[in-house]
Amino acid sequence: MPPGPDAVLDLTRELIALDSVNPGLVHGAAGERDIAAHLAARLAASGFDVELVAPPGDDARVSVLGVWSGTEPGRTVVVNGHLDTVGVDGMDEPFAARIEGDRLIGRGASDMKGGVAGIVIAAEELVRRGVPGRVVVALVADEEDASVGASVVLGRLRERDITADACVIAEPTWLDLAVAHRGFALYEVTLTGRAAHSSQPELAVDVMPAFARLLADVSRHDAALRDVELHPLLPHGSLMTTVARAGSAPFTIAARAELSIERRTVPGEPVDVGLDELRALVSAIGAEFPGVTASVETVVARSPWQLDASGPAAELADLLAGCLASAGRDVGRIGAPYWMESALWQEAGVPTLVCGPAGGGLHAVDEWVDLEQLRVFPGVLTDAVEAFLRSAARG
Questions:
Q1: pLDDT in tens, 40-80
Q2: Which of 163, 175, 18 is nearest to 84 (CA)?
């Protein structure tokens, strides 16, 4: 029988109760092992071919890959979400889900255990309906940090020669369709001079003036980027210093400075554009401050993303928008200023869209998900994916 109206609420509460704080963010945190085992058992009982996958040597960072082959050959749809959460500092009872009015409160309620519950309920219902094609459930570890889960799952799909026509990621979008998001890159800049006692500055190469100039130059470049509109749904690109350290001790001329500098990109900009920009800035620093050397290293770089204008993901997006409209939702098409793993799926050759239930307090002490969105999501996702799979079978 089809799921009841509170099936997704019950599963979301179960998932919130399972501590899955990301140990890459909080030393010693639980990781995803328990929540992955819980959902793997449930999907296996629903008829999915399930495996737990993890990076070599790190069995706490577990992702779930469930595959169900339908009643006849056809398209393949991936439904995807992440299992990890950020930390719980300042929260009284982070894993005790509670309802207040129209909100379900608890760590991960919105980001994104509500979305994960919704795609699991939808996947089970697609099996019950006996749809054609193939349904892949990918529940990944480590989205909040380094995306090792997505990388491992995508690698496993390649090993199994499973190709997908479209992927739906249930990140919190307030049931709007997210059709674009920004990318980012993080760089470490090091300035090096020569130390000396502060009573003898003529013996030193002081990095402080160069340090101050680079901070100012990064700020000026960021201001210039704000005047360039490259995408109708997204903020401009940005360049900002988020961590800055210089010097080692009082009475010692600073011989070293370190800066963490972040570049946000929009579709149409190459992911490494910030590297070229920073190299130009530090080159000017070196010319102005003789004796100061500078290096720029890329820590991580992730591409921006946007929904394909046509093709299977655009088709599925239209079907999902239609199902949401039939459910009384006024669906917008939005851009997200932050990064999501849709870029990784798209780069792996899987056309991707993003839609899921949301609320507020993401990464904060009062995280919650809207109950009405939570209850609507599984049904509209089921109907849209079924229509997508059956339309190809009919064709």
A1: 999 999 999 999 999 998 888 999 999 999 889 999 999 99
A2: 18
φ and ψ of 130, to 5 deg: 70, 45
What CATH fold (topology level) applies to the domain 183-302? Alpha-Beta Plaits (3.30.70)
The angle formed by the CA atoms of residues 21, 26 and 31, to the nearest 5 degrees, is 35
Q: What is the CA radius of gyration of the chain?
A: 24
Q: How far is CA 136 from the centre of its chain?
A: 19
Specify the residue for token string 């989205």. 143
Q: What share of the chain is helix, strand, coil (3-state, %, to 5)?
A: 35, 25, 40
pTM to 2 decimals? 0.94
Instruction: Find where tokens 């509460």 sit.
Output: 13
Cα gap 21→15, rounded to integer Å: 12
Nearest 5°: the CA angle 64, 145, 93 is 80
pLDDT tens-digit series, residues 6-24: 999 999 999 999 999 999 9
Bridge-based pairing state of the strands 76-82 and 98-100: unpaired
**Residue 25 half-sphere exposure toward CB, CA atoms < 13 A:** 20
Tell me the domain boundaries of the chain: 7-180+305-394, 183-302
Contact present, 185 and 263 (Cβ < 8 Å): yes
